[in-house]
Design brief:
Blueprint lengths: L1 H20 L7 E10 L3 E7 L3 E6 L2 E4 H15 L7 H9 L6 E10 L4 E7 L2
Antiparallel strand pairs: 1-2, 1-5, 2-3, 3-4, 5-6
Keywords: Signal
Amino acid sequence: MKTKVVSGLVFVVALFVVPSVLAQPFHDVILFKMTAETEQGFFHWEFNNPDSFEYHQDERVIHGERAKKEVMEIYETLALHPQKNKDELAQVLKENGYDDLLRLDIHWQTARSELYTWLWKKQ
């Protein structure tokens, strides 16, 4: 009997706690802008709802489907949610090909008009 009560309690807590730390679905995003400066160059990903995608690598700028692919890929890699901190986000990038990261700047606005900003600089 105690096991069923504890299991039920864990399930109820999971329903309310876990979703708050899961990545925000992309369809709930109004704005996503990220800039990463590395020893090798400059990268910028940008999305403005409903369908404006832009990707920069140094001086090269890409729009359209190719930019959408780049933006969606980095967004999914980051798995953004409000509780993430700048060090966690920088670490994710370092583990995914940007190991020489010098600076990271992220602006993210949800469908509820909540704006989050992270700024990380290498020490």
